[in-house]
Amino acid sequence: MVSKDEIRHLGWLARIELSEEEISKYESQIDRIIQHFDILDSLALDDLEPIYLKKSVRGLRIDQAKDFGADVLPKTRNGKDGYLKGPKSDVKP
Predict the structure, then answer these.
(1) What is each CA distance from 49 to 32, 41, 54, 64, in whole angstroms?
(2) For a designed S-S bond to 79, which of 71, 73, 88, 89 qualifies (C-beta 3.0 to 4.6 A apart)?
(3) Tens of pLDDT along 48-81?
(4) What is the pTM of this model?
């Protein structure tokens, strides 16, 4: 069984605030998920051969490198001093 402290810790890791109502709700939901995994763990699969799926690669294109030249960054809105400036992050360490 998952404790409320573990749910709070998961919320802290995900950087979300959880109300007591949400903690109780997620506690029961995660317990049900773990019960499903327990059912899967109890299946006897030792005698079964693994199934390998073969995917067709006919629909995929071949990657081809293209030379855009050295003057690509100056043409972008966020290019500066040979670098591309990305958006600011709101995540604080």
Answers:
(1) 29, 17, 16, 39
(2) 73
(3) 888 887 777 677 778 888 877 667 776 777 777 7
(4) 0.49
Q: Are 4 and 27 in contact (CB under 8 A)?
A: yes
Domain boundaries, the chain: 4-42
Strands 83-84 and 79-80: antiparallel
DSSP 69-89: -TTSGGGSTTEETTEE--PPP
Other Cβ atoms closer than 10 A to 7 = 19
Is-contact 3 10, C-beta < 8 A?
Answer: no
User: What pLDDT, on the 0 to 100 scale, is given for residue 65?
Assistant: 83
